Amino acid sequence: MPGHRALAATPRLDAKTRRKLEDQRRMAFRRAIEHYNEERRLNRQIDDYPELIAIDYLRTLRASARAAAH
Fold first, then answer.
1. pLDDT in tens, 48-66
2. Does the pTM exceed 0.90?
3. For the chain, which terminal residue's Cβ has fewer other Cβ atoms within 10 angstroms, N or C?
């Protein structure tokens, strides 16, 4: 059981520290979900305007060409 070995390798933590670590993991997970949802929302908005995608692509090409020239 891989989980059993992982638990055996971690030191014993008091309840306060354990709750703090669980809260940190939970908040990181929540931030990841919020970031994912925000990306999806922005992509749906951008999909309504395909010409903006083309303009952004052209700007990126020009910027990379300028960077390569210098």
1. 777 777 888 888 899 888 8
2. no
3. C
Nearest 5 degrees, angle CA 59-CA 64-CA 65? 95
Burial 11-49 (b: 16+ CB within 10 A, else e): eeeeeeeeeeeeeeeeeeeeeeeeeeeeeeeeeeeeeee
Token pair 């700007």 is found at 59
Q: Are 21 and 13 in contact (CB under 8 A)?
A: yes
Q: One-letter amino acid identity for 31?
A: R
Cβ(62)–Cβ(56) below 8 Å: no
